[in-house]
Amino acid sequence: MKKALIIGISGQDGSYLAEYLLSLDYEVHGVVRKVAIEDSSNRLFRISKIVDDIKLHPADIEDYSSIFRIFNQVKPDECYHLAAESFVSYSLEDQTSTINTNILGTHNILSALNETSPNCKFYFAGSSEMFGKVTESPQNEKTTFNPRSIYGITKVAGFHLMNNYRDKKHLFACCGLLFNHESPRRGFEFVTRKISSSIAKIKLGLLDEIRLGNIDSKRDWGFSGDYVKAMHKMLQKENPDDYVISTNSLYSVKDFLEVGFKEVDLNYEDYIIIDDKYFRPSEEIPLMGDFSKANEELGWSPDINFHELVQMMVRHDLKFFSHKV
User: Fold this and answer.
1) Shared domain check, 256 and 157
2) Which of 127, 149, 198, 224 is an active site residue?
3) Catalytic-residue membership of 127
4) With 80 as the cut, is the pLDDT of residue 157 above it?
5) Catalytic annotation on 129?
6) Considering only CA atoms, which of 72, 65, 76 is closest in space to residue 9?
7) Do 84 and 19 share a structural domain?
């Protein structure tokens, strides 16, 4: 039986990945902050249904000794590093914390892994934010990194750290350059979940409006449950490599609103208020990934399309908030 260690198991991607690996008969271990163990009902809700089937280890990835101890104890066959400060607005507000978590934390993990489990296969969660201000579309594995956010900068640094261990230490390490991926488990601070939850509340009479920024902004949106399968496929290859994981399609926030409100038989224009405080700088060329390499070499492609994703999220939130009426 293979052993997998998921760092960031309580997040959106970590929870879907844990469920997927359990379905493949893996022994699944997860790293969470100590506070998550102490406040499990609020911080471990995404993995509440599988918590008895996995082994959780409290640690702070900024603390090398705690990470070393876990690797030395578990000796995993595969390690998935998904822990990061990923919300761009938060990373702008607290740049020091983002740098420490995303760069120092990644270095600690790579160092501990190399010392204790050098044969373990390693996955690093990259991001489309690494591409930043692009000059070509769609973006692929050869597109130059030009990050525009602290989050993107720290992810590029983590990518180069991973590459250094792959080249110099011969660690089996892969990076998934994941474009926006959503689900009913997305945090409420992200625009997709803000919209789906607000639609549900409006339909249930709990809310009157949604305040948003630029609804013409476009993104390449996929389903998290699909993307974690690509992570696993990368570590089953004979040789490590990096892959763009995306949908090869663009939809605007307005598109998301239209599909979501249609699901509850309402017109989004009756409920949207454009608020300048939610505006982010618009991209001259939007971020859209080309997953051709992942399709050709991994046999991966997304199963859930944009419309199905939006409908899934709205239906989940209708059920979730109906208990509060």
Assistant:
1) no
2) 127
3) yes
4) yes
5) yes
6) 76
7) yes
Nearest to 127 by CA among 169, 81, 92: 81
Q: Are residues 213 and 154 in the same domain?
A: no
- Give the containing element (helix H, strand E) for 29: strand 27-32
Task: Write down the pLDDT at residue 285.
Answer: 83
Determine whether 151 is an active site residue. yes
The pLDDT value given to residue 87: 55
Could you say which of 78, 85, 129, 182 is catalytic?
A: 129
The residues, ordered by sequence, that sit 6+ positions from 6 with a Cβ below 8 Å of its Cβ are 14, 17, 18, 21, 28, 29, 30, 31, 79, 80, 82
Residue 14 neighbours by CB under 8 Å, 6+ apart: 6, 8, 30, 46, 47, 80, 82
Question: For the whole prediction, is pTM greater than 0.70?
Answer: yes
Q: Residue 256: which CATH number?
A: 3.90.25.10
80, 151, 165, 227: the catalytic one is 151
What is the tens place of the pLDDT at every residue in 67-119? 999 999 999 999 999 998 765 554 455 688 888 889 999 999 999 999 999 99
